[in-house]
Amino acid sequence: MISRIAVYQKVPDTRATVRQKNFQNLPFYKKIKSVNLVDIYTTGKNLSSEQLKQVALTLMNPVTEGSKIRTRSNGSENTLFIELDHNLDIKFDWAIEIGFLPGVTDNTGKTTKTGIEDHLKIKFEDGDDVYSSQVTLIEGDLSKSEIESLALSLHNPLIHRAHIKSRQEYGKVGGMDFVIPKVSIQGKNKVLDIDLNVSDEELEKIGQQGVLGADGKRRGPLALNLDYMKTIREYFKKLGRKPTDIELETFAQTWSEHCKHTIFADPLDELKDGLFKTYIKSATEKVKREKQKVKSTKNFLVSVFHDNSGAIEFNENFLITHKVETHNTPSALDPFGGSITGIVGVNRDALGFGLGAKPAFNTYGFCFADPDDSKPLYRDAKKTQVMLSPRRIMEGVIAGVNAGGNQSGIPTPMGFLYFDNRYKGKPLVFCGTVGLIPKKSAGRKSWEKKAKPGDYVVMIGGKVGLDGIHGATFSSESLHTGSPSTAVQIGDPITQKKFSDALVKEARDLGLYNSITDNGAGGLSSSVGEMAKESGGVLVNLEKVPLKYPGLDPWQIWISESQERMTLSVPKTKWKKFEGLMKSRGVDAWVIGEFTKSGKCVVKYDKKIVLDLGLGFLHDGLPKRTQNSSLITHNFAEPDLEDRKDLNKDFMDMIGRLNNSGFDFLSTQYDHTVQGTAVTYPVQGRGRINAEATVVKPLYKSERGLVLSQGMYPSYSEMDAYKMAAASIDTAFKNAVVAGADPERIALLDNFCWCSSNDPERLGQLKRACEGVHDLSVAYLAPLISGKDSMFNDFKGFDDKGNPVKISVPPTLLITSLGIIDDVGSAVTIDAKFEGDLIYVLGETFPELGGSEYYSSLGFEGKEVPGTDPVKNLRTYKTYAKVLEKGLISAGIGINRGGLAVALAKMSMAGMLGMDIDLKKLPGKTVFDAQSLFSESTGRILLTIDPKNKKTFESLMKGIEFAEIGKITTEPKIKITSINNTIVINIPVQEVLESYRRRFKNW
């Protein structure tokens, strides 16, 4: 029996209104008269008419909704209406049903199934499920091809099925078809022996295209180069046998660039220890030594670079952890699935730190192409594999992080949007999680963990399916024609929320497990393999791993990246208590093996050994590659700024550019107030302007807080990657200080997203960027506590004419800062607050506009990228912090992208007050007004103070470059006088605000 419960709206549906509005980019939009939505719940479980009626009543609001139940059994159909006016006539000409393809995670369906079980007091058997879908009813004189185009805008063929019917077809059968998207796999559970004694050409093909399966087809990328494949071949020659397919797949996951970060680890030029040890790790070691040596500095480092997150001391009882991940390639194929997996995945990095940190705050950062760019790209020459448009990618990514964070009950107080058309082939999707963990847990140091021989290998959370196969290797390559759709998965935040609370609120502090890590890239092969190093070995019984559906082969079970899973080591004596606790909290837990001290990773399937690898070779056997770089500098043309006469227009254009525009539509849909930890919000002031930093309070009973900020300048990379890195650190550090962070207690995270990283020139830029990160981290005594890299963010495909194209992202470095503020009551916001307040600029302005937003607005790139003087800048920031301690600062904002003009506009718009500014007083060496307004020189802060504090303030500022440049006015205008005493800007604040909101007004 199959049952379909359709829930209709009897009142106007705002969801339908929004959907119709989203169709406005379609060329036939004006033909669409009306849109209505119907939610569908389908199940194959045998339920009586009375049970179905009870279920329908739980799925609808009888005041505003009605439902229609259709059942099919043995070829006959029945229909039942509940609380629905039989004469309800929804006018439509076309019906489009969108549902998930078989095997794709259906969170709505899973939640509905749980609700039915609870309400009816029944249990679904294996194989019985609930599947959600939605029907869009379109009224309008549209052709079949137009409705197919509209349907394509509603779904992603990689994860969705779409079914279209005309009104006549719909009426013949009384609705859409009965579809049960159940997975049916004809797996043979067979383990293959792979012959590696083949030619180099065939060996390379196996490494790049995958194992040849029993069906004669390649399974997908292993991302193992020829040297790696030869090393693996020699290993098995010594063992006197062929590797199994599951063993080869394990090497692919463990040795992938995604997991091993070989570009950072392998020798480069004269750097025998590689980029990571030479620049990143050594910077933190130097900072730590300096902080230990100099009593006036504050050492707060606890755990860096060896766990799922980095950790600093928050107070005498708690640690703060932080990790930022990227989920770029999956988000290019399925933006919603890619980004929701990114955010719930990095939540698990907090849970996997030490004995488990509570995910306390989320952060994000999205790099997209212009959402108005409608030119298509294709993955194949025949133009059958169309890439999603920048708009679809942006909408999906935003929705995914929304679903992952909001449904998990984790606040998301900080993030950014950045646009460049070089992100059209691959977006960059940064997802971060700040964790909170007590220093002691059940008498143990919480940041230390160790699986012990004899502990059970326990997996908790969700079951295993085909989703996420080859995710790690897939992310180690460029996106191309053969990129597998199975690498895309969708996370389930509800399941994860249940085990998250059960772990960090109960099991951890009861001492019920010895170690924990997440099942991320590589699935069990990664998590179990890593934890086996702690105990010295492991034995896994693969048939004990629970499956979403039957038919998976052993290698698929082992490397699947199905979401919301953690692996733990649980002492046998504590298993029953642990299992009982998990069961009482609605969390599934399974014993799948035992940790040993054999020195091996051994996997059995049906009592037969299918994997038997030495841990030493598995983790440390990959050969070192010698990399070489070359450095090419680019000097691009610059405009003649002497000819820029209409600065009013330039000012308004700059405020309205994508990278300066307000994105409060995004900030406010991410719940940043849940848990009551927000101090300053992501949008600030009466004008609701996006802030450069936010302040949060992790503990209710403490006034100590955290300051979160970010810095990123991809537009500088091609001209000077060192200066790009320096500016990124300077901005992240400065923004935190301006909001109130102690300059001596700021930690940094680095996320490198590079392109074509086997190209010597790109490696040269990477090397220079790493030097910049090292130098600024050491100069500011701001340690790097965690990081991540994604090195092949390239798209290789075809344009709308079938011509081959390669689109590479600009070399991108995101720096995230995590600062401590002792009293959140002293936090600073960006909004101007009082008429008559004096406006000051700290730091000097130079004609440094290379890579700036202003040059970009004029169609130029330039050459003079802003330099950073860390000694001078740090002196400025420490002085600012001392002034802040005196309570003298009313408002403050870092001068960042867009220069002084954008900082002034944000401060004015946030407070909805005017400004009167004199550029003659600006410290520095600018020649033209455009340079003064739009230069992006580093080390600068804009602030306001009460006039009565002028003398005290200026006496405290001795020794740094600063100047009073104007005052706050009640007349709501931004008025700026030029270097030559003429008024060059005179614009009402409301008009500036309208320009600021223009680009995303309809989002």
Give a description of the structure.
- The chain has 1003 residues and is of the alpha+beta class.
- The protein has a domain at 2-173: Phosphoribosylformylglycinamidine synthase subunit PurS (Mth169, Chain: A, 2-Layer Sandwich), CATH 3.30.1280.10.
- It has 30 helices and 39 strands.
- The two termini are 42 Å apart.
- Mean pLDDT is 92; it is low at 472-485.
Q: Which structural traits does this protein have?
A:
1003 residues; alpha+beta; Mth169, Chain: A; seven-stranded antiparallel beta sheet; seven-stranded mixed beta sheet; 30 helices; 39 strands; 32% helix
What's a quick, concise take on this entry?
Helix content is 32%, strand content 24%.
Write the layout of secondary structure elements.
Elements: E1 2-9, H1 14-22, E2 32-43, H2 49-59, E3 65-73, E4 76-82, E5 94-100, H3 107-120, E6 130-140, H4 144-152, E7 160-166, H5 167-173, H6 200-209, H7 226-239, H8 245-254, H9 257-260, H10 262-265, H11 274-293, E8 301-303, E9 310-313, E10 318-326, H12 328-333, H13 335-351, E11 358-368, H14 390-408, E12 414-419, E13 428-438, E14 440-441, E15 444-445, E16 456-461, H15 471-474, H16 493-507, E17 515-518, H17 523-535, E18 538-541, H18 554-559, E19 565-570, H19 575-584, E20 589-595, E21 600-605, E22 608-614, H20 615-620, H21 647-655, H22 664-667, E23 678-680, E24 683-684, E25 689-690, E26 693-696, E27 705-711, H23 721-739, E28 746-753, H24 760-779, E29 784-790, E30 794-798, E31 804-808, E32 812-821, E33 838-842, H25 853-857, H26 870-885, E34 889-894, H27 899-911, E35 914-918, H28 929-934, E36 941-945, H29 950-956, E37 962-969, E38 973-977, E39 983-988, H30 989-998
Parallel strand pairs: 11-12, 18-21, 28-29, 35-38
Antiparallel strand pairs: 1-2, 1-3, 2-6, 3-4, 5-6, 5-7, 8-9, 9-10, 10-13, 11-13, 14-15, 16-19, 16-20, 17-19, 18-20, 21-22, 23-26, 24-25, 26-27, 27-32, 28-32, 30-31, 33-36, 33-37, 34-36, 35-37, 38-39
Helix pairs in contact: 2-3, 6-7, 11-24, 13-14, 13-16, 14-16, 23-24, 23-26
